Structure formats: structure tokens, C-alpha cells
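The following record pairs a protein chain with its ligand, adenosine-5'-diphosphate.
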Amino acid sequence: MLKVGITGGIGSGKSTISKIFELLGIPVFYADDHAKKVMTEDPILMDAIKSTFGNEAYFDDGSLNRKYIAHIVFNDANQLAKLNAIVHPATFRAFDIWAAQIKTPSYILKEAALLFESNAHLMCDKTIMVYAPLQMRISRVIARDGITKAEVESRNSKQFDDELKLKMADYVINNDDTELVIPKILALHEHFLTLAQAQ
Ligand code: ADP
């Protein structure tokens, strides 16, 4: 089964575009949602988080103390790197379990904000970068999440630069009103079906 990774900067539209692939019948793994889930469901990861950040990382009912973790990792790049280093392998495990349950012979999509940063692209056959310029992405995220420009910029700074991701990706979807997105998605869909059949 062909595995296609899809990424893009915050607000680029990668989730919106992934939903269109889903409408075409393609299963999509949303890595960021799964990363949140494994933090309260994967016992290996939960033990690693407690031993790295302390037992205060979880409440007595087993739920994650998100404020405590956020306070630690968003004020210290080393701590964020430590958290990523333990969460990413757990998300990879979740992806493998999810992918193993899919019986369709075509392709699947892995949507991840940190596809290249986490090396998840190495486990994909092809990669797509969804591109939109930073100013456009900032306006979209302010409208979507109601957060400030500074917060969007801070989250954006934790991702690779667009230039690097554009170089690393096999395909680019320009979601910045410079080209029609749906025909591009349909063309890629046909292309991936052909590649999957040849596998
Ligand atoms: P990402 O998953 O990359 O952070 P989203 O798919 O959530 O981005 O898109 C960010 C916001 O921008 C959402 O509110 C979405 O509806 C909107 N959006 C996405 N693509 C476009 C577009 N081509 N034109 C206008 N708004 C868009």
C-alpha cells in the first residue's frame, strides 16, 4: 500500500486538503490528533512522560496536565525536543497499527504538521507540501483559532522553513489562490492510484 505524507505550515490548509482526499475515499491518518491521543493511551509513552517531566504531568484520573506540559516545553526548546523525541515514536506506532487495519489496495495519507521535522517522511513513499505564504497563513489561523499574530508566529517558528519543505517534498499544492486546488488534488489522486497499482 502506497503511503503518502502531507504537510505544510500552520494554516496552509493541509487539513482542509486532506479532507478532500478523504471525500475521494482515501483513508487519512491525522498525526497531530493521534499524537494527543497516545499521550493518554500509550502506556510506554505515559511512563516516559512521567519519568521525563515528573508525575505532575498527569492528573490522578489519568488525564494529561496540558497546562503543566505546555508551560515546560513552550519556554524551553530542549524540553520541547525531549517531548517530541518520545511522542513521535508513539505516534509512529499508532500509525503502523492504523495502517495495518486498512485493507484497500490503493493508497493512504499521513497528515502531519511535523512530517519532515519528525523524520516521518522517511516512512512515506511520496510527500506533498501544501503551500501558502506566511501572511495568508497567519490571517487564516487568527480567524480559525482566535489567537494572536504572535502566537501563530511562535507556533510557525517550531516548524522547518517553507523553503526547506518545498525542496524536500515530492509534490506541492499551492493553496494561496494562485491555482485551482481541486483539479490539482484530482490529478494527484489519479497519479497515486496509478503508482499504487504498479506496486
Ligand atoms: P492547517 O491544517 O494547515 O493548519 P487548515 O486546513 O485548518 O490548515 O486551514 C486553515 C484555515 O484556513 C481553516 O479555517 C480553513 O478553512 C481555511 N482555508 C484553508 N484553505 C483555504 C483557502 N484556499 N481559502 C480560504 N481559506 C482557506
